[in-house]
From TrEMBL:
It holds the Pfam family Hydrolase. This is Haloacid dehalogenase superfamily, subfamily IA, variant 3 with third motif having DD or ED. GO terms for molecular function: catalytic activity; metal ion binding. Coiled coil: none annotated. Its cofactor is Mg(2+). Keywords: Carbohydrate metabolism, Magnesium, Metal-binding. Belongs to the HAD-like hydrolase superfamily. CbbY/CbbZ/Gph/YieH family.
């Protein structure tokens, strides 16, 4: 009995999931939407420029597009991009390799999950609806924070949504701004680089993929942090 209890205690209090690039591979949708919008207004746009937006909040990305010559209000840019990406999500949700199996294992272990994304709620909810019922216990979206990633606010709010200390939660991230946000919030932050490389540094946790990962991996990290 004591051994079972100890095993439960080693679970993280919650897992805070980034969405774009971590749970689902929607970054190509965003880059395509940005390229179509810029090209429609006579502005050349490259994939490399689109990669600079990975992990940003949407209004920051809109401002960068304005700086590149797009003469539209920021809110119009955001709404146009969202319309395009939501339409693609409604056709097919491109889950990242291993993400659904890992999510299922976490939920089965009784660990609550919160999505913490810079995408807006209407897009995030479309992705959550494509996940198995009951996968997520909460959502923090980009239109519900005062300051987006890399500021710690999104992950602080994600932990607070469940009444938890950030340090008791694991955060899963693929982007530079997202990982910086999770680390600054004090979570047990795991970087899973996708389109953009993440810098290796002492104490930083990086996984090459979610494929083959299990709750045991999370327990090991949580136990290591508590020592």
């Amino acid at each position: 009995m004591l051994q079972d209890y100890a095993g439960i205690m080693m679970n993280p209090a919650a897992v805070l999931w980034d969405m774009d690039g971590t749970l689902v591979d929607t970054e190509p949708y965003w880059i395509r939407a940005e390229t179509e919008l810029m090209n429609a207004h006579g502005i050349d746009w490259s994939e490399e420029q689109g990669l600079e937006f990975v992990g940003n909040d949407l209004l920051t990305s809109a401002a960068m597009m304005q700086d590149a010559g797009l003469d539209l209000p920021g809110t119009v840019i955001v709404d146009t991009l969202l319309d395009k990406v939501v339409a693609k999500i409604e056709e097919a949700v491109p889950f990242r390799p291993g993400a659904l199996d890992f999510l299922d294992a976490i939920v089965t272990a009784g660990i609550p999950c919160v999505m913490v994304t810079m995408s807006y709620r209407r897009l995030a909810e479309a992705v959550i609806c494509a996940c198995p019922d009951g996968s997520f216990d909460g959502l923090i979206s980009g239109d519900e924070v005062t300051v987006g990633k890399p500021d710690p606010e999104p992950y602080l709010k994600g932990a607070a949504l469940l009444g938890l200390a950030p340090g008791a939660c694991v955060a899963l991230e693929d982007s530079k701004p997202g990982l910086a946000s999770a680390e600054a919030a004090g979570t047990i932050a795991i970087g899973i680089p996708h389109l953009v490389a993440l810098e290796e540094r002492p104490g930083r946790i990086l996984w090459s993929s979610l494929e083959g990962r299990s709750v045991a991996d999370l327990r090991e990290l949580t136990s290591r942090q508590s020592v």
